[in-house]
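Input.
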Amino acid sequence: MRLLTKILCIGIALTLTALPVVEAQTKLRDVLDIEGVRTNDLVGYGIVVGLNGTGDSVRNAPFTEDSLSHMLERLGVNVQGEEIRPNNVAAVLVTASLPAFARNGSAIDVSVASIGDAQSLEGGTLILTPLRGADNEVYAVAQGSVMVSGINVEAPGARDTVGTPTTGAIPDGALVEREIQFDFNSQDSVTLALRTPDFTTAARVEDTINTALGGPVAFMRDPGSIELNMASMSGSPARVLAAIENLPIKVETPARIVIDEKSGTIVLGQDVTISQVAIAQGNISIKVRENPVVVQPNPFANGETIVLPRTDIEVGQTGDQNIALLNSNTTLSQLIEGLNALGVRPQEMADIIRSMSAAGAIHAELVIR
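Output.
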């Protein structure tokens, strides 16, 4: 087999026309969270009615019939001793997130998911469902028509499902009934938490806030938090945060490579550098052929016909073998350009990056999911 070798030298100095680079300004509000200001998860159990024969079956989901009976009894309908076997009702779990500072009457989105053997929630309506928090208190009630993105098509001898028809959403489907008491302006200090802890970014946030407010009011406690001293400022904490949340900040990003093996996605950070290394990439093919031989006894002999196995195994290499030579301090753009020129697929590129990291030739944090 003829082996075609490609040599690619990455890192050759090229003369390019310099173009102005405009960096997008990142605001403080996009990289910081306020300690104590958070969303709270809510969950509830309810039933969806009005399904077109795609609801739960009584045999596999008896709790659906019990829930429907209890609901009808609360509405004044006596169904004791009666067998209710509808196929247009489904038991569901309803989830939502209660935003910080949500007030009574505020509308929030809810998600609905079937917990029985319903085939689809399309066209259904969620009946009034209380949503509880971790303390088992009711904070919102949900009701409304369920919007489903998936579809389920079934016919005699065939069935096809696109998406997930057993889950759906109700935009603004819940109303807040209980507020979470939190007096934000009574705090003497406010802690700002970096979403991605970093010493350099935290120091820049401290300097930016102190420069904007004209005094040492911000103090970096660690790479993930900055404390604001509200006692030394005349305005309320809400007014102070409103004054600084839109300040521009330069965020320091670590050199990191993220590989998602399920989807074959590779994301490389800007500051990834590579030391001098050589890469050989090729495909090995193994062919196995079965050529059984039939052996028969001689005429009028007392014997039987047998089959003898005959197997041929051939090991070779398909396609071209690619060899890449990476010079010292190769940049990210040069690496991607070189691997693309070699015709490397995303799955093969992930294997190459892992091998380079194991060899110590790539200087970045490797995250594999």
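Confidence is low (pLDDT under 50) at residues 1-22.
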